[in-house]
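[Archive record]
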Amino acid sequence: MKSKIISLIVVFTSLQTIAQEKEPDMKTFGKAIIDKFPSTRTFDIQYEQLGPSNYNSELLGNRFERGRIENHSRFKAAFNLPFYASKSKKFVLTTSLRYKYESYDFGEVYNYNTDQVYTRENQNAQYWAGAVSATYMSSLFHKPVIYNATATVDGNEDDFQRLKGFVSVVFVLKRTPSTTITAGALVLLDPSSIIPLTPLFSMNHKFKNSKWDMDFILPQRILFRRELLEDGRISFGTELNSENFYLNLDAANLKGVYELNQLELKTGITYEYSFSPKINAFVKGGVNHVLTTRITEKGERTNRYVYSQKEDTQGYFRFGISYNLFNKKR
C-alpha cells in the first residue's frame, strides 16, 4: 500500500503540471514533483509528534490488550538524486534513500488474558528503504504520458528484509487552463499485495476568479490551496498516509520477522514557506484518525494479519525543512 501511494502521487503530480505545457519535458516533470512533495527533493527532514491516544488490540483473533500511548513521534529523512538522463531528457534514472525512526511511550496496559495491569517499556523502531526508479515520458494520441518502473529494497536496523517493485502508466484525459484530469494504472510486483492492479485518477482545478485551487488524487488527498504572502502557501484538506516498519519477535506464539502496516487519515492545515529558491519549510497540524493497524508475517498479505489494533483519534503536529539542489529560480 505504501509503495502504491508514493508512486501514485508522484506520477499524478507530474502530469497535472506537464499536461498544461505545449512541449512538456522532464525538467517540468521534476518541478511538479518537488513543488508538492518535500520528500522528493534532494534532501528532506521531517519530525512528527502525535498526541496521546487509547488503543484496543486483538492477537490471533482474540482480545489481547487495551492501553494508552502517551507519546508517539516520528523522525524521517530522505535523499533523492537523478544520476542519468538521456540527451532528449525524456528518460531519467533516479536513486532515493529513506530513513525513519519511530518512538512509542506507553502508559498503563491491561491484558485480557491475565487480567493484569502493567507498564510496558518504551519501544523504538527503525526503518530504511532504497530505490532505483526509471521514468520515461512520451505521448499517446498527442497527449503526454509518463511510464515509471521502480525497484525498492527495505529493512530495519537488523537486516535487509524485502525486495519490492511496481510499474505504472498515467496519461491525460483532459487539460484546460483551469482543469487537468489524469488517469492510468499501477501494477504492484509484490506477492503480499491484496490488489496487484490498481486504477488511478486525479484532478486539479483552479477556481474561476479566485486564488484557490483544488488538488484531488485518488486515494491519497484532497486539498484546497492558495498562495499566502509573497513566498508562502496555505492548504486545507485531508490526506491518506501509510506507515510501516519491521519487528523481530521472539514470543511463544510469534517468532520471526513481522511487518507493521498502519493507514492514517490526516485532516488539518499546512503552511509552506520558501526561504530561498533551494530551501523550503513547512508546518502542519490537525487531527489524525488511524484507519487500520495490522501486523503480518513478513511477506504475507495484510488481510492475513496476526495482530490488529484500534486507536482513538488524536491530534498531530509535523514540521520539516528541505533542500533542492537543482532549483535556481522561484
Notes: Residues 13-23 have pLDDT under 50 and may be disordered. The radius of gyration is 21 Å.
